[in-house]
Amino acid sequence: MSYVDEVLEVVRKKNADQPEFLQAVTEVLDSLRPVIDANEELYRKNAILERITEPDRQIMFRVPWVDDNGQVQVNRGFRVQFNNAIGPYKGGLRLHPSVNLGIIKFLGFEQVFKNSLTTLPIGGGKGGSDFDPKGKSDREIMAFCQSFMTELCKYIGADVDVPAGDIGTGAREIGFLFGQYKRIRGMFEGVLTGKGLSYGGSLARTEATGYGLCYYTSEMIKCMKNETFAGKTVIISGSGNVAIYAIEKAQELGVKVVTCSDSTGWIYDPNGIDVALLKEVKEVKRARLTEYAAAKSTAEYHAKQNGEHGVWQYKVDLALPCATQNELDIDDAKMLVANGVTSVTEGANMPTTLEATKYLQENGVLFVGGKAANAGGVATSALEMSQNSERLSWTFEEVDGKLKGIMETIYANISDAAKRYNATVGGNTDYVAGANIAGFEKVVNAMLAQGVC
Ligand code: NDP
Fold first, then answer.
1. Whether residue 204 has its Cβ less than 6 Å from ligand 1
2. What is the pLDDT of residues 394-429, one digit of tens each?
3. Is the CB of residue 403 below 6 angstroms from any atom belonging to ligand 1?
């Protein structure tokens, strides 16, 4: 049995109740086969795959807080510190009822490779809680965040582990978390990223993931197809941080975006999504997309059917999934191919199922996983860490310019790694393999240099 298959078997046995984690490990190790086969003796002797699939530590804790009726509520908090071979742990905090250890481990594992791809010195981690911020008052959110940080602060620090936002954790939550860290530790340091501008945040961090996704997509179609992003029609799912700023940048670059979605339904607007209205509905009012449709006569609102949104059905050029994991399945992939979609670049983490990914790739669609395409968020978080360390703030243009350069470098590094290992699929460069290989090589070289730890 090959080294990859041996390790996959052990990982499956040890983590049988964590399907998302197993999905992520299988996808990564499968695509790394050429590199691992070429270095099998060295990696086997050093148990590289066993070490890289086992987090450095997994922290789970109780988060008690008091709701507005005086009732004590209890949630579960998580921080998985996956690998710090190339820098302090770095990765977001997800607040969503679906959060469990397996989901945090899948996200932490992916983060290791993504952070390595950014070219910046950051290791991988992830955290969060099964707390549902929806419908909670500001006071309840603060009570939860303070309790969460009371425990988390024992394990993080500017040179140790630097969490950030993710689903359900935006500027408001980061503010409450930072305030509590400062209060308990008595230290003003860059322990979180995504902070407000008045207390160490970076310009362009809010926009970074969505903007970076567009920079990457634009670079890829320029290099691969000799075409411009401008003039294309695009489907985007989600209406959170990533989706909103992907829509904004795509439109700035001359692209028409015709959809967006949330956890209850989706919008189709053939005239193009009105991003100012979307921001008003989602960022200011924190309301549902029905409010968008009510204010926009050209928009159609559709409620989710059988738990699924239907944004993938429209005839467009490109698709950018930006909501959540496993939101694009095999039937959706078939629809995209039938409609002539030429590329899928993931803004969210693992929004495409393994089966759908394979189908898209084998049918000639340029497919880029979130690890590469959404790395602009964490890259800009690392730029926020740099600014905090030098106690300076860079201009929006400076940060945005660095972000664009990083996304173009990521594209070049991935293409180079895929070329070195002859990784192609469906007649195209295999960007999934390229990203995993480029991210893996840097982390493994650091692990080997640092000995058994
Ligand atoms: P937000 O919380 O801002 O938005 C998430 C969006 O997805 C919302 O539109 C939400 O709808 C929808 N959504 C959430 N859960 C589900 C679900 N179970 N089914 C259907 N729709 C759902 O998160 P972000 O935009 O920050 O993150 C989106 C994705 O991008 C995640 O996978 C995240 O891990 C990833 N990511 C984010 C980065 C960042 O910088 N923000 C960086 C890199 C990756 P509703 O409003 O109804 O909840």
1. no
2. 999 999 999 999 999 999 999 999 999 999 999 999
3. no
- H/E element, 241: helix 241-252
Q: 254: CA distance to ligand 1 center in Å?
A: 24
Note the pLDDT tens digit of each residue in 155-168. 999 999 999 999 99
Task: Write down the catalytic residue from 114, 126, 136, 371.
Answer: 126
What Rg do the C-alpha atoms of the chain give, in angstroms?
A: 21
Please identify, by atom number, the ligand 1 atom nearest to the C-alpha of residue 324. Answer: 32
Helices (H), 229-346: 241-252, 275-279, 289-295, 330-338
Taking only the tens place, the pLDDT of each residue in 17-65 is: 999 999 999 999 999 999 999 999 999 999 999 999 999 999 999 999 9
Q: How far is the CA of 323 from the centre of ligand 1 (A)?
A: 4
- Give residue-wise pLDDT tens across range 123-155: 999 999 999 999 999 999 999 999 999 999 999
Q: Tell me the two tokens of residue 431.
A: 């960007």
Q: Which atom of ligand 1 is nearest to the CA of 96?
A: 15
Is residue 126 part of the annotated active site? The answer reads yes
Distance of CA 322 from the midpoint of ligand 1 (Å)? 7
Q: Angle at Cα 391 formed by Cα 387 and Cα 394, nearest 5°?
A: 45
Q: Provide CB contacts within 8 A for 178, sequence distance 6+.
A: 191, 192, 195, 199
pTM of the model: 0.93
Helix (H/G/I), strand (E/B), else coil: 142: helix
